[in-house]
Amino acid sequence: MGRAVTVALEPLLKAGCTLSAVTEEDGDQWLKVTLPDGRHIGSWCLDCLNFDCRSIHSSGNAWMEEWLIGNNVPYVHG
Question: What is the pTM of this model?
């Protein structure tokens, strides 16, 4: 079972991230969060960053959770 990490937008902006809404050809939109170092991650929620991170030790998205921790960005997971 997965574990969703959710982050409000304001703390991401305060940490130096750039936020942009991306519109696909079919009209679907997603949020692109670009970190100050140029890496980016997407979220289908436009009002927050939400991504799956099954484990901070083995998930493909663990780098993002590690960045949040290292930059003192508050988030919730469940």
Answer: 0.90
